[in-house]
Design a protein that fits this description.
Elements lengths: L3 E3 L13 E2 L12 E2 L29 H5 L4 E2 L2 E2 L2 H4 L7 E3 L25 E6 L3 E6 L8 E4 L3 E3 L1 H6 L8 E4 L9 E5 L3 E2 L6 E2 L5 E7 L9 E6 L10 E2 L3 H10 L24 H30 L7
């Protein structure tokens, strides 16, 4: 019997409940924040900010302003070039068609994000790692997983707060030459499931920049997409970045990474490590194996639907 300490941390705001489970110890999950589904922002948006494409029919390249402004491709409601986004956060942006700002109402090929968080996950306490988000389903490469939401703070506001970089991410403004122009997304007081994504030196999600319900260039959203196949039971992870690690390691000499990848950037003392070439080969094999599991699952599902697969 699993120890469910909260049946739904999202309080009914997601497509599926997100249970919190702790079979390890007596620790409670951090509840000193309000679960929200959108960023908390006090900026007022102009009419121009809230104007998208004027497509009357199907949105296509060459005639859709949103598609033409993007260098991220959407195909079958997934990011086609997801693997290119990995570790290239500053290089790519998506302008997806918005339901409230585009004439197409977002009912077109250029739509990626769902109305609600729609991935089946659990928030599970793990030994030596705290709580982590585990997938209960297959997640295909290119699938949008979650937006990283919180309070949107200018740099001055974020620096006033204690430890602004502990949870928050800085999103730079690529459309200006001003130094340090951008904003922090701080989930300390307001956040969603993405605030619980743990770090891994071999993550399965990668961040990307996108605009959805507005076109204000200094308020770009930060989303996470699967850049490789995620299998049921796997932890959903991101890369916190070298700056985050450098800051925290300086503050504590006993601060180590617990991702258990064999080519870890900050491993605990004595943890066995592969060479960079060995780790590359192992990573390629993991990606291949997980994709094969997905293909087998799809094959079994097709057989079941056609009546040729016996579940007994």
């Amino acid at each position: 019997m699993r120890n469910i300490i909260d049946p739904d941390i999202a309080e009914g705001t997601t497509e599926f409940p997100i249970p919190v489970i702790n079979d390890v110890d007596e620790e409670e999950v951090d509840t000193r924040f309000k679960y929200v589904v959108a960023n908390v922002d006090d900026i007022e948006y102009s009419l121009e900010d809230l104007t998208g494409c004027d497509c009357e029919g199907e949105c296509v390249p060459g005639s859709c302003a949103c598609i033409d402004a993007s260098n991220i491709e959407i195909e079958d409601y997934r990011i086609k070039n997801a693997s290119e986004l990995h570790n290239r956060f500053e290089k790519y942006e998506l302008y997806e068609c918005g339901r409230d700002i585009c004439k197409c109402k977002g009912k077109c090929r250029n739509r990626l994000t769902p109305d609600k968080f729609n991935i089946k996950v659990e928030l599970v306490k793990q030994k030596d790692k705290g709580f982590g988000v585990l997938s209960k389903q297959f997640i295909e490469t290119g699938t949008f997983v979650a937006e990283f939401v919180g309070e949107l703070l200018f740099v001055i506001e974020a620096n006033i707060r204690q430890n602004p970089s502990e949870y928050s991410f800085f999103v730079s403004n690529l459309h200006t030459f001003k130094k340090n122009s951008g904003h922090y997304v701080d989930p300390t007081r307001f956040g969603n499931i993405a605030r619980f994504f743990n770090h891994s030196c071999l993550p399965n999600l990668t961040p990307f920049r996108y605009y959805s319900n507005h076109r204000r260039l200094d308020r770009v959203s930060m989303g996470f997409v699967a850049w490789r196949t995620i299998v049921p039971g796997a932890e959903i992870t991101i890369d916190y970045g070298s700056k985050w690690w450098t800051t925290n390691v300086k503050q504590s000499h006993n601060f180590f990474c617990r991702c258990e990848w064999d080519y870890c950037g900050y491993p605990p003392p004595g943890a066995p490590q592969l060479t960079i070439e060995e780790s590359k080969k192992k990573a390629v094999q993991i990606i291949k194996d997980d994709l094969e599991k997905l293909m087998l699952y799809k094959k079994l599902c097709r057989k079941h639907l056609t009546g040729t697969f016996n579940l007994k």
